[in-house]
Amino acid sequence: MNKLSIVRAFFLVICGVLLAGCAGSQIQKGSKEEGLKLARLLRDQGRLEASTEVYARLDSKGSLVGKELIEYGSVASAVKPPQETLGIYSRARQQIGDDAAPMEKNESLALCLGMARAQIALGRTQLAQRDLDCALKLDPQNSIALNGAGIVLDASGQYREARVQFEKALQSDPSNTSALNNMALSWLNSAEPAKAIELLRTTDSSNPVTQLNLALAYLYQGDTDAAHRTLAAIASPDRIASLMSTLSARADELKQPQNRGSNLLLASRSPLQLSSIKP
């Protein structure tokens, strides 16, 4: 690499590092309209952390109200803890009031779904139910809301009813892997690992979450070799022993009746992460 190429590469790195700071500087100097335009541009580019930072700066200045807080919450939910996201949505609801008539249907739906997802992530299933009812009233076929309804039912031990909701979610959106994984976990909660395995083996083998749950189902059934092969296909060798240990412990917990609903809720809130995946 010649000297000019090195200078150009260094310049590109510096620009990338400073971009978020430049966005912050722009929002401090510009108007609310300019800030929202920048936040939405970053959001549409998939740069959710940078977009959230711009929304947060606007919010710290008291610039965001009502519908704009819903917009902020929808972006922030991907990068902020659920407690913070819930706070954003709660302020939006308080400002708008119980009468959501001034809002468009998609805005009302975003608020109800956002509140429900945050409540579920915090383990507050009873509070989530009200918001799920709100979402399903607006859109009875909404796959996200149906999946959430299934999680709430499963957490209360209503496994068969939960699977009905997961099935509805998949009928509405066959690509909803969250609903598929939750249905598989619900089968484990019902002590039927063979049905969980049958379901998960139909999925894309490159999806880490479904493969982790498949390994979990194998371990529940006592098939350690199949679990090891499943993990070996997605994880680096140095992670397999640790994952086997963690999943084995979770399988043992799932076999305890008092833990079944809470374990699906745990899996929904804190899915296992792989430190490295094979390319």
Stretches where pLDDT falls below 50 for ≥5 residues? 1-27, 268-279
Class derived from helix and strand content: mainly alpha
Helical amount: over 70%
Order of helices and strands: HHHHHHHHHHHHHHH
Major sheet size, sense and barrel closure: none
Strand content: under 5%
What is the average per-residue confidence, as pLDDT, rounded to a whole number? 83
> Quick one: overall form?
globular
Radius of gyration: 22 Å
Distance between the termini: 28 Å
By DSSP, the count of extended strands is 0
Give the helix tally.
Answer: 15
Defining key terms:
0% strand, 279 residues, disordered C terminus, mainly alpha
Q: How would you portray this structure in words?
A:
This protein is mainly alpha-helical and about 280 residues long. Among the domains are: about 30-95 and about 105-125, Alpha Horseshoe (Serine Threonine Protein Phosphatase 5, Tetratricopeptide repeat), CATH 1.25.40; about 180-275, no CATH class. About 75% of the residues lie in helices and about 0% in strands. It has 15 helices and no strands. The chain has helices spanning about 5-30, 30-45, 50-60, 65-75, 80-95, 105-120, 125-140, 145-155, 160-170, 175-190, 195-200, 210-220, 225-230, 235-255, 260-270. The longest helix is centred in the first third of the chain and has 27 residues, at about 5-30. The protein is globular.
